[in-house]
Amino acid sequence: MENDQEIHKIGSQFSTLNVNAVEFVPSFVVSHQPQKDIENSIEDPPPTAPSKPIETPENNGNVVENEPLDTWDEEETILTPDGDNENEEEEMEVEDGSDALPKPSTKRKPPKVEENCSKKEHVNVVFIGHVDAGKSTIGGQIMSLTGMVDKRTLEKYEREAREKSRESWYLSWALDTNQEERDKGKTVEVGRAYFETEKKHFTILDAPGHKSFVPNMIGGAAQADLAVLVISARKGEFETGFDRGGQTREHAMLAKTAGVKHLVVLVNKMDDPTVNWEEVRYNECKDKILPYLKKLGFKAKDLTFMPVSGITGMGLKEPIDKNLCPWYDGPGFIPFIDDLPSLNRKTDGPFIMPIVDKYKDMGTVVMGKVESGMAKKGQNLLVMPNRTQVAVDQLWSDEEEVTSVGPGENVKIKLKGIEEEDVSPGFVLCDASNPIKTGKIFDAQVVILEHKSIICAGYSAVMHIHCAAEEVTVKALICLVDKKSGDKSKTRPRFVKQDQVAIMRIECSGMICLEQFKLFPQMGRFTLRDENKTIAIGKVLKVIE
Ligand code: GDP
């Protein structure tokens, strides 16, 4: 009986943690601005570019004072799909886990207990990659290896899966969240689970691999600090996932855009008979994917490749058995991520939490990741962009009730003073005296990644920015930016096409929360999607109105 209760507890945990990351507005209301002449509004030269829209190469690598650590630096500024990125550190060798791992120290410091700060560092990890690469299997296996899901619960999942003759799916079930998903055998929503290592508390944002679920994936990636790209080494599967149409590329790109600092590439299914832990196949996968990741702007020091088997758990916790894999000398995945350098988040900034989802439960409960600052029980906050005054009634961090929450934590907050209907995903819960900026029209630097024709003023797409999805229209093209030199064109372009970088003025269909990228990267980077494809990525340079 005790066991049943345990199972029930875990089951309900998964169901309440289940988040539909991005909600789409079914039909967008096209707003007709009073006919203001766009040309006039951007007449003054230099058009509308802010005084220093593009960081200079001299700044490369230096974190500007007060700037959050995961800035989109110069390499990323000239992020190009074809990769002719001058600043790329081509010479740098990408580390296998073996070399990248910080030197293990034998002396462990006792945990520092500070007032309100005795918690482990919170890190959000998103598993990305093509469908069937093994993301759910690995997630489930990690939960089991860290003692978060007991063997019996996993066995129950396994039994249920067998009954439906889907025996190899059993670990996936630990992450899949509802019956419908289980029946389909697919992880549809960005499910959540968490596990703890010695020094850190990890929340898993398990991203689905289906094409139509890429928008959900964006929600997951927007919250992640660490991305784990799972690729299948099985013969034929790696190739399918990486070719055009496969999702390996798009997911990696979204992870980069969303600002994840570190990317671990797990070369999975090494146990498969077509692979058999062979170094040649591992290197083949790694060598094919590496140039693409570098093109996206991932620096060698932020990339780690590791061979694993999600199904057997090999390489996840303990180092890999030398008999199986004599050529790999790195640590297991879990100790590796436990030892990654701390994110050094700021707790002293104003409180900012983009809302991923909400529901009604004797009050209005909002969910999301705290991007900066702290919030306490009883505190007054604002829900932007509507400036609704609210008070914090109850707080949970990864399902555990707490009295305060801080940066990086995945939280649920029950609010007083607002109806559930008056909150939408993409709204932002903020400090009452220092709320996030809002706006409808802004200038942005945009990289066109993939688009079959040209983009002119009047072009519409869906913008994904933090947790918000909003229809936007390009009001005007301001200038082109040379990818290599960063020079801006003197004349205003009539159109912009694939592989080009442009500064443009963008209008949203409604008021949204956003911030200049250089002041707050998490709130100032976005993707543009059209016909279910990510066509461009961009950063906010200046909010106009
Ligand atoms: P996801 O779509 O990326 O979440 O992939 P799943 O975790 O659902 O796994 C897809 C399929 O690959 C399932 O049939 C798994 O049993 C299988 N699989 C996952 N990891 C491994 C592995 O390490 N080795 C082998 N041989 N099969 C695996």
From TrEMBL:
Region described as Disordered: spans on this chain:
32-116
Q: Where is the composition biased (Low complexity)?
A: 56-66
- Compartments, record wording: Cytoplasm
- The residue ranges flagged as biased composition, category Acidic residues, are 67-98
Q: Which GO terms describe its cellular component?
A: cytosol
The UniProt keywords, alphabetically, are: GTP-binding, Hydrolase, Nonsense-mediated mRNA decay, Nucleotide-binding, Phosphoprotein, Protein biosynthesis
What Pfam families is this protein classified in? Answer: GTP-eEF1A_C, GTP_EFTU, GTP_EFTU_D2, PAM2
Q: Which residues cross the membrane?
A: none
Name the reaction it catalyses. Answer: GTP + H2O = GDP + phosphate + H(+)
Q: Name one GO biological process term.
A: nuclear-transcribed mRNA catabolic process, nonsense-mediated decay
Main localisation: cytoplasm
Could you tell me which residue ranges the Tr-type G domain spans?
Answer: 120-345
Look up the domain of life of the source.
Eukaryota
Q: Name one GO molecular function term.
A: GTPase activity
The UniProt family comment states: Belongs to the TRAFAC class translation factor GTPase superfamily. Classic translation factor GTPase family. EF-Tu/EF-1A subfamily.
Question: What is this protein's record name?
Answer: Tr-type G domain-containing protein
What is the native source organism of this protein? Answer: Polypedilum vanderplanki (Sleeping chironomid midge)
